[in-house]
DNA sequence: CGTCTTTTTGAGCGTTGTCAAAAGAGGTGG
DNA sequence: CCACCTCTTTTGACAACGCTCAAAAAGACG
């Protein structure tokens, strides 16, 4: 479980580029001119896949790059002084992680692959240079960071105000929305994280997560088969989510 | 309690400018050339003071500007679908708010003055233009947003993992650090928010906040006199804070 | 000085965490 | 391919932390 060398490229020539990447519409939801996409392409490094459990970067490590998930899932987490881990986020394909490292030039969290995962590495210094030439790229980065702030604040509402049922429902519906946006089923998907990781993330004990999910199934809200989740009663689940999810709900141009 | 007109300037010529502002070192912790500070100055509007309870901006309102607090304090909050408010942050002098509005071009939260408060309004479109001419300003904005992401994640750890004692201790120590950074006493300060607002922010009932503070006083950790707080046993308080506060602790250049 | 709000304090209850153990899933090697 | 081991998930019993309700005390404000 060592941090993989940031310089290790993986078959760079053969892997798809931004133009061909099915995620580009999500990853770059701006109308970049072809030449601009090319310029972006040139700074992006496509790394060898991470195996389950491998670290993409480590808390305290010098910040170099932000990463876009291509396939797989990652979690980011802190290690508290009592030695336990606190998960601060899960990252699905098309999503960007590492932005929190800009401030101190150090990653404040570690990022670990939950399954075999491929990412695009975007050296931030290069990206920042490029924003001087492509103003819309700059705006896009501002927006991505702003969005992250919104999302985290919704998470704060979840942690501070919601009970166990609402937390679990919100978590599942959040994943549902994210899968839907990527063109996957909004009602049927596979959890790449363990119950324990869900509980950790939601501020709940594992047992509580398990109990809530079982009860949801009994009540016909969802169907659980191990890590496979099917959302059966979408309206009722939405109702449980409750509080307005300002940032998550609104579709972005 | 209406939103004040964003165009209302307050005595713009007479109020201090960035060069003279005692907060500039915090507000602009970068070595901007004099001419650059001037350019920044020109886009900043200094608004008339907000009275306690007035809104600086309202959830759902179109995003125009970010704001730097000059004096006073603000809170940002969401209104949940059950009509209750969820406070997402408190803002002290030199701190910037409104960044979460960039993403949707809409403020996802409302901002309300907790006391008489003055702010500098920075129209974001102008600021963004200016970043094209001043790369270090652009970097500074990236850093500020990155910092906000770090801070919010620390807040997520607090809400998800800490008990009532640790939450209250963390809250007080966080304020202490912020006051210290601004040159005020780290051990003696005035809370501009009510117990109810603290509880709301920390995910605790008012009564719990009150009880914890009373107990802290009994145990010689702090001294409470209404809204006046004195931190008596700083090491013990730091110990209670517990988990590593990666972002908050490190001093920024 | 009276009224309204905020804060404090007390009592009792409920949700969720902890502990424990069984059941299930996944991985390894013979 | 099955047996075995380990890790994860589920389920149950119980306890505790923090919430709710209620009322008194202390401030704030006109």
TrEMBL record, chains A, B:
Matches recorded under InterPro entries: cNMP-bd_dom, cNMP-bd_dom_sf, Env_Response_Regulators, HTH_CRP, RmlC-like_jellyroll, Tscrpt_reg_HTH_Crp-type_CS, WH-like_DNA-bd_sf, WH_DNA-bd_sf
Designated name of the protein: CRP-like protein Clp
Gene label: fnr
Description of how the protein assembles with itself and partners: Homodimer.
Compartment(s) of residence: Cytoplasm
Top-rank taxon: Bacteria
PANTHER family hit by this protein: CRP FAMILY TRANSCRIPTIONAL REGULATORY PROTEIN (PTHR24567), FUMARATE AND NITRATE REDUCTION REGULATORY PROTEIN (PTHR24567:SF75)
Organism: Rhodanobacter aciditrophus
Primary localisation category: cytoplasm
Domain HTH crp-type, first and last residues per copy: 162-235
Pfam families to which the protein is assigned, alphabetical: cNMP_binding (PF00027), HTH_Crp_2 (PF13545)
CDD domains: CAP_ED, HTH_CRP
Transmembrane domains' residue ranges: none
Cyclic nucleotide-binding domain ranges (all copies): 28-111
Keywords for the protein's UniProt record, in alphabetical order: Activator, Allosteric enzyme, c-di-GMP, DNA-binding, Repressor, Transcription, Transcription regulation, Virulence
């Amino acid at each position: 479980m060592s941090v993989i060398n940031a310089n290790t490229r993986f078959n760079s020539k053969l892997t798809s580029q931004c133009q061909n990447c099915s995620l580009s519409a999500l990853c770059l939801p701006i109308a970049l001119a072809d030449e601009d996409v090319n310029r972006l392409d040139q700074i992006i490094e496509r790394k060898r896949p991470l195996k389950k459990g491998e670290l993409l970067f480590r808390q305290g490590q010098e910040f170099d790059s932000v990463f876009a998930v291509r396939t797989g899932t990652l979690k980011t987490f802190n290690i508290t002084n009592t030695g336990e881990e606190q998960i601060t986020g899960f990252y699905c394909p098309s999503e960007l992680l590492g932005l929190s490292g800009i401030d101190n030039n150090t990653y404040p969290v570690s990022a670990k692959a939950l399954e075999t995962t491929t990412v695009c590495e975007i050296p931030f210094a290069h990206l920042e240079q490029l924003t001087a030439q492509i103003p819309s790229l700059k705006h896009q980065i501002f927006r991505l960071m702003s969005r992250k702030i919104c999302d985290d604040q919704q998470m704060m509402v979840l942690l501070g105000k919601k009970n166990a049922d609402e937390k679990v429902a919100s978590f599942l519906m959040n994943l549902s929305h994210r899968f839907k946006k990527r063109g996957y089923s909004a009602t049927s998907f596979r959890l790449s994280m363990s119950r324990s990781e869900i509980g950790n993330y939601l501020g709940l004990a594992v047992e509580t997560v398990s109990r809530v999910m079982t009860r949801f199934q009994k009540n016909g809200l969802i169907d659980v088969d191990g890590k496979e989740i099917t959302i059966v009663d979408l309206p009722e689940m939405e109702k449980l989510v409750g509080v307005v999810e300002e940032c998550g709900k609104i579709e972005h141009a």
